Amino acid sequence: EVQLQASGGGLVQPGGSLRLSCAASGFTFNNYTMSWFRQPPGEGPEWVSSIGRGGGSAIYADSVKGRFTTSRDNAENTLYLQMNSLKPEDTAVYFCAARYGVFTFRPVQYDYWGQGTQVTVSS
Fold it and tell me: What percentage of the chain carries pLDDT values higher than 90?
């Protein structure tokens, strides 16, 4: 059974930090491009970041560039999102997603999704 278990969300004040994790199982993790998406209240999913199968450099949406860092540990089948300098507009449910193929912005082209973890940035 394929599982993507996201964790690490919570309530944080503006300017604070959180680290999200996404634990993968049931598929060959290092064969998949991994991405983070987020869905603010009342809106559709928004691509945040992606990282290739081997790790290395990740790419980011302009809205999070310089504040968020994506990494992966293929030995542990885990994806991470380090979020710094958080803003109220970062409030959303954050999802991890896996794609057997190259990077894409399109949510519908991802094969597997996690259940999401809520991030709320508020004073």
Answer: 93
